[in-house]
From TrEMBL:
InterPro entries: Restrct_endonuc-II-like, tRNA_endonuc-like_dom_sf, UPF0102_YraN-like. This is UPF0102 protein V3851_05280. Belongs to the UPF0102 family. It holds the Pfam family UPF0102.
Length: 127
């Protein structure tokens, strides 16, 4: 088996688990999940949720504790990624007829411990 394919598949699986953990976390906090992995030509939004009177656009990032030594999940959200998420959110809001809605951009950072435990850091209004 190709070692790089194995690494990529492992990262994708960890990413899926992180997104599920973020969904579960948000729902436990009273958010309503509207969309998951919504995409268009400009990019993809991991999660779109609703809380009180606000549409919350969520970027989910994950890392193992070991990999976090090279940068936390939060630190992996670059200016380029922020622009892509904002541009994609504008398309979503336009297509869903919600261009005038209150919108907030959050980051949920998931760090995996050695024993598989998860540490979730929810940063509201991250960008």
């Amino acid at each position: 088996m190709n070692k790089n394919k194995s690494l990529t598949d492992g990262r994708k699986e960890l990413g899926r688990k992180a997104e599920q953990a973020a969904c579960d976390y948000l729902q436990a906090q009273g958010y309503t999940l509207l969309e998951r992995n919504w995409s268009c030509r400009s990019g993809e939004i991991d999660l779109i949720a609703f809380c009180e009177d606000t549409i919350v656009i969520v970027e989910v990032r994950s890392r193992s504790r070991k990999a976090a030594a090279f940068g936390t999940p939060e630190e992996s959200v670059t200016a380029r990624k922020i622009k892509q998420v904002r541009d994609t959110a504008a398309v979503y809001l336009h297509l869903s007829g919600q261009s005038e809605a209150n919108v907030r951009f959050d980051v949920i950072a998931v760090t995996y411990g050695a024993a598989g435990e998860l540490d979730i850091n929810h940063i509201e209004a991250a960008f």
